[in-house]
Amino acid sequence: MYEGEFPLVISCWKDDIATPVVVDGYESGNQMTFVWFDVSANQEITFETPPTIYSEPDDPIAPTHSGFGAGFYALRSMCYGIESIHQLPKEYKLGQNYPNPFNAQTVIPLELPQRSMVKIELFNMMGRNIGTMFEGIKEAGWPRVKYNASHLSSGVYFYRITADGLERGGKFADVGKLVLVK
Asked: Global pTM?
């Protein structure tokens, strides 16, 4: 919860011309998107960038020379310019893959209450690990993992997800069943 004073100033620096190959700051004309996370309500809040406030050349805090000063924004309140409030899932869930049965490709839907390290492994009917379907970081929300099983033979398989929360901790594990028909 922001308990500071308003206006709230968000500073954004322009790209440094000394490093022309790498963009290391804001480029004039590009749209900026700010996403805030409200921990108490478990939701993301996206708002439209308010009007730009440029500093003066003699401003000791943000002089306009060398690209500084362009990209300073002041908010009158945390509600100014809110475009949407996106409620995140409250708990982890593994959805049923679809289509099921499937031929070659399927999608596994997830619900993640926070950014998480996710691993989905595939097992045959005997419980033998056949491989990893996905391993990596997924953002909070409703990500979907696509899987191509064209290299496998027809049959019933199980997929196991393990997820470790990266922001608030916590672990999740679950198993689903899929049917491959060629």
From this structure: 0.57
